[in-house]
Amino acid sequence: MSAPLDIEGPTAPPRANGELVFSEPWESRAFGMAVSLYEAGGFTWPEFRTALVTRIRAWETGPTRDEPWHYYRLWLAALEDLLVSQGTVSADEVTARTRDLAQRPPGHDHRDGHNHTH
Amino acid sequence: MTTTGSGEHLPPALRTEALEQLLTERGLIDPKVMNGIITEYETNVGPLNGAKVVAKAWTDPEYRRRLLEDGTAAIKELGFSGPQGEHIVVVENTPTRHHVVVCTLCSCYPWPVLGLPPSWYKDPAYRSRVVREPRAVLSEMGLELADDVRITVHDSTSEVRWLVLPERPAGTEHLTEEELVPLVSRDAMVGVAKVEAP
A8-44: per-residue pLDDT in tens? Predict the structure, then answer.
């Protein structure tokens, strides 16, 4: 028997959005980056879609699904794949910058909205 | 101590921030423009747009005809357009014919009329199963269809986005277009629910 579908609550009323669109702030940034670049002519939507399909297929056909399904992780990876293939960024520099950001001492990361009382 | 490598184990939030910094430094994105886009999709673009399209089609036969003939143009008449709305095809549900929409390969969805897709629409279970066993999937989602109702599953492609025009429920003949709008749910416009009379 297949796993039941993940259905969140009753049918959503047609207010502005039927449900929370993004579950974490970084997902909205990853979404916004792709749409910004597309609108600025950085790539066509079919190009992005192809990159996304490739990432999703890789997850679905991977030998071990050790990574849980997380749509926006795949979205981010697809965006990076496309930008790397265009020569816009290199994976190494993204990794290097990510490590730099990870080195920030706690309390200096103002993006998460922590309060800074110690 | 760090190991060199892909950096796959660093949190995606940091990797997103790193990418955003690099693209901003290169002048490829403007964080202000990006904030505007995010706000737009979080608060403005959503299924209410599609509900207006449906309610108009229910009350204006000439509009309904145009909508079924050229969805993109008829939707644009109401001011809804944008990415993922370049080619919208509208299919009409009837008592004997039911349409349901999926994107088997990823998550294509008519953003200008429905906003961003709900998580179940992107889920591998829905995407793979609704094609193989639509009746069972719809039943699990609370929609029981009689055996003689013909179900058509529409798979989005890189070009076409689908919108379902649900059946107008019986008992709503006296309602105005404005009164019908709130009855139309997102799920009915994807084809996984029916519109119920109030």
Answer: 333 333 334 456 678 899 999 999 999 999 999 999 9
Q: What is the ipTM of this complex?
A: 0.87
Residue A51: its chain B contacts at CB < 8 A?
none
Residue B106 and residue A57: Cα distance in Å, rounded? Answer: 9
Mutate to test the interface with A, among B9, B16, B100, B177 (most CBs of A within 10 A): B16
pLDDT value for B10: 83
CB contact under 8 A, B47 and A56: no
Residue B107 annotated to the active site: yes
**Catalytic residue status for B156:** no
- The pLDDT value recorded for residue A107 is 65
The list of chain B residues with pLDDT below 50 reads: 1-7
Do B23 and A88 count as a contact with CB atoms less than 8 A apart?
A: yes
- Considering the four listed CATH numbers 3.20.20.70, 1.10.10.10, 3.90.330.10, 3.40.50.970, the one that applies to the domain covering B46-190 is 3.90.330.10
**Domain boundaries, given as residue ranges, for chain B:** 12-43, 46-190
pLDDT at A113: 45
The distance in angstroms from the start CA to the end CA of chain B is: 62
Q: Is the pLDDT of residue A5 over 70?
A: no
Q: Does A12 touch chain B (CB under 8 A)?
A: yes
Inter-CA distances, B104 with A18, B101, B121, Å: 22, 10, 10
Structure tokens given for B56: 């108009």
B residues 24-53 lying closer than 8 A (beta carbon) to A? 26, 28-30, 33-35, 37-38, 41-44, 46-48, 50-51
* Nearest by Cα to B122 from A117, A77, A71, A45: A71
CA A109 to chain CA centroid, nearest Å: 20
Q: In chain B, which residues have their Cβ closer than 8 Å to the Cβ of A46?
A: 158
